[in-house]
Write a structure and sequence with these properties.
Elements (H helix, E strand, L loop, with lengths): L1 E5 L3 H12 L3 E6 L2 H10 L3 E4 L5 H6 L7 E4 L4 H14 L4 E5 L6 H7 L3 E3 L2 H13 L3 E7 L4 E7 L9 E2 L9 E8 L2 E3 L6 E2 L4 E7 H10 L2
Parallel strand pairs: 1-2, 1-4, 2-3, 4-5, 5-6
Antiparallel strand pairs: 7-8, 8-13, 9-12, 10-11, 10-13
């Protein structure tokens, strides 16, 4: 998974570190040369000294091959321009932008970014929910992204097929709240039997989300 980050300030630095800890490939763009040297010495990431609002710099960072493009400079106008270029010129599928001023959230969403947010934690959770959770569909985020309501389809030949809910080794801080079988909605109890093809709706926190994905593979 390749992530391009524009802006090497405090937010950009911590985002890069978070993404590297999750084994993503990170390319960071920062205007300030001294800041670039500092980040390059601290993180195992490619750091480019340049202006993230310039096409040539974005091309050098490989923006066209990025899975995620994140603009988190301290200037909302720069974040908007970088997001627009990433979306329209480089056709990046997922573009996230920082809004330093909450009043600019709607403009960023409308004109460039798929998502405009203002928190390191929220951006990290957003990427985890959409990227790492293969097979999971996010229905809603709770508590500023710290928990979520999500759905899973029990695959064929799953070990969960024909298993009672009470026997499922559910991760801590997670709870199955409903089950959809065909057109039928079931509020499950401990003795409810699950089958391949059932759609499970669960509530979980960020720590248990990955364990749920593994469980329902």
């Amino acid at each position: 998974m390749k992530i391009v980050i524009v802006g090497g300030g405090k937010l950009g630095y911590h985002l890069a570190r978070n993404m590297l800890d999750r084994d993503y490939t990170v390319i960071l763009i920062e205007r300030d040369k001294l800041r670039c040297l500092h980040i390059a010495n601290e993180l195992d990431a490619e750091v480019i000294n340049g202006d993230g609002t310039e096409i040539e710099v974005l091309a050098r960072a490989g923006a066209g091959r990025a899975d995620y493009f994140i603009a988190v400079t301290g200037n909302d106008q720069d974040n908007l321009v970088a997001s627009q270029l990433a979306k329209k010129k480089f056709l990046v599928n997922k573009v996230i932008a920082r809004a330093n001023n909450p009043r600019n959230l709607e403009a960023l969403r409308r004109l460039g970014a798929d998502n405009a947010v203002s928190s390191t934690e929220i951006i990290t959770r957003m990427i985890e929910q959409q990227v790492e959770s293969v097979g999971m569909h996010l229905l809603a985020s709770l508590n500023k992204g710290k928990a979520s309501i999500c759905t899973f389809i029990i695959p064929e030949r799953s070990s969960l097929n024909n298993m009672a809910l009470k026997d499922v080794p559910m991760p801590k801080s997670s709870l199955i709240i409903s089950l959809v079988r065909g057109e039928r909605l079931i509020i499950p109890q401990g003795n409810t039997i699950m089958f391949s093809g059932d759609e499970i709706v669960a509530v979980c926190d960020g720590n248990s989300q990955k364990e749920l994905v593994k469980l329902f593979k």
